[in-house]
Amino acid sequence: MQFSLPFEKSILAEIHARLLATFGPQRDTWRLDPTSQLVNAMISSKTRDEVSLRAFRRLMHSYASWDLLVHAAPATVEQIIQPVTFAELKAIQLPRALRMIAARTGSLDLHFLMDWDEEMAMQWLNGLPGVGAKIAATVLNFSSLRKRTLAVDTHLLRIGERLGLLPGGADYERGYDRFMHRVPDDWTGNTLYEIHWLLKYLGQSICTHASPACADCPLQDICPSCPPSLSGPNPQAPNPQARLSRPQSAAA
After folding, report:
1. Which end of the chain is more exposed for a tag (fewer CB within 10 A), N or C?
2. What is the pLDDT of residue 19?
3. Which ranges of the chain would DSSP assign to H, the alpha helix?
4. For the whole model, what pTM was predicted?
């Protein structure tokens, strides 16, 4: 029987357990430093992971140090990161963000954020050009900082709305706040990293934008958007044979 999801923290634990059984553990083998993750996250927005990761690698090859990117000409950066979405704008914002970091701190090293609480660190990063809640959370969680933030991308917004966890039309900031309000108190940054990828895989393979495959979804009985005829429990939904590629330390 379908039911409305209660606004309580236990629901994310249930979702995590079911998706873990479907897609398996999501663990990383290495992490970028937070400044490199910022660069990676900024160029990856609205872009497929495989495309943005190649662009990030071209930037690393072109600039031996991010200090050299600080004063790079936007036209040069744009040429390197093409064909990422909004390449022209990102090529302007990226050096500006790095210059602001250097002006504020005297260097490009963001490891000092390790000692800050998550809310303060999110606010500081949000003050950089081209950085919002999604990019800030990605920098803090996906990097070597491993902080307790959830990277909420378009997949998480869509799934959160369908599950009744988010209001319709929620943006990244509101989505982040609503999701974090429901995160169990004992979850670490590694657990938040894992549920990000589990929900993203669900959004890419089953709960897609245009044609969600509700019959294959392990959350169908707790999803208010699922057709009533498919609302029975399905904890053993088929594990997609084509595993989705997760670039290491890539942005959401």
Report:
1. N
2. 98
3. 10-23, 34-44, 49-62, 74-81, 87-105, 118-126, 133-142, 154-163, 172-181, 189-205
4. 0.88
